[in-house]
Amino acid sequence: MILHIPNVLSKEQLVECRDLLNKADWIDGKLTAGSQAVNVKSNLQLVENSQTLSYLREVITNALKTNPLFISAVLPNHIISPFVNRYENNGAYGNHVDNSILYDSIVGKNFRTDVSCSLFFTDPHEYEGGEMVIEDTFGTHEVKLPAGDLILYPSTSLHRVEPVTSGVRMVSFMWVQSMIRSAWKRSMLFELDNTIQSLRVKHGETQEALNLSIHYHKLIQEWAEL
Fold first, then answer.
1. If 43 and its partner were Cys, which of 91, 98, 127, 155 is the partner (CB 3.0–4.6 Å)?
2. Would you tell me how many other CB atoms lie within 10 Å of the CB of residue 190?
């Protein structure tokens, strides 16, 4: 499932984050790339031990933990500490698949990467190129979202970032270990939750909506890995 989640960050948060990013120190993104990705990665990345990244991680993680659409779609068990990258001067990231297991240095543990996410800090009109291209079983999808919006997709998807030919593209990227390992089970639960919420909006808390909600939670109990 590929899902666009709008307005993860507020306008006020975006102004603050952009101010911090414009003053930040950046390093070569290849320094954090894996053995496969290092050959196709050309971008900059925030220094990991910087106060700026530490603060942005807190802002982003808190925003995701309180976003109902994100919670419904991902059913997160753990959000791996986010990173932030910067593309300019034809910077790009060629076709690659994210590592299946990643180490979160903040908590000192390895986590499974079930869902990948990109949160945009720059608007599409601020740069040329830089489209994120995600390939899945339903075809190829180009993504270039407004600042504050997030795209999520299965971490097993082949994806890339096209060259940024002018301007600057800044994005936070992160991974999530879901309580539900299977992508199709997560998708099923997401559709069921959407149906329940839609019924409640149209008809209130009916017995039918309550019955569906009971089955929804039973499925989570059956499938969840904690």
1. 91
2. 18
Nearest CA to 83 out of 109, 35, 44 is that of 44
Vertex 141: Cα angle to 137 and 145 (nearest 5) = 140
CA torsion, ordered 67, 21, 158, 189, to nearest 10 deg: 0
Q: Which two tokens stand for residue 192?
A: 């069921």
Q: How many angstroms separate the CA atoms of 220 and 116, rounded? A: 21
Token duo for residue 203: 């008809």
- Integer Cα distance of 129 and 43 in angstroms: 14
- State whether residue 1 is helix, strand or coil: coil
Q: Terminus-to-terminus CA distance in the chain, angstroms?
A: 22
Predicted confidence (pLDDT) per residue in 101-144, tens digit: 999 999 999 999 999 999 999 999 999 999 999 998 778 999 99
Q: Is the dihedral of CA 157, 82, 178, 71 positive or negative?
A: negative
In Å, how far from its chain's centre is CA 171?
10
CB 65 within 8 A of CB 59: no
* C-alpha torsion sign, points 30, 2, 77, 81: positive
Say if CB 81 and CB 175 are below 8 A apart.
Answer: no
Q: Phi/psi class of residue 77: alpha, beta or left (left: φ > 0; alpha: ψ in -120 to 50)?
A: alpha
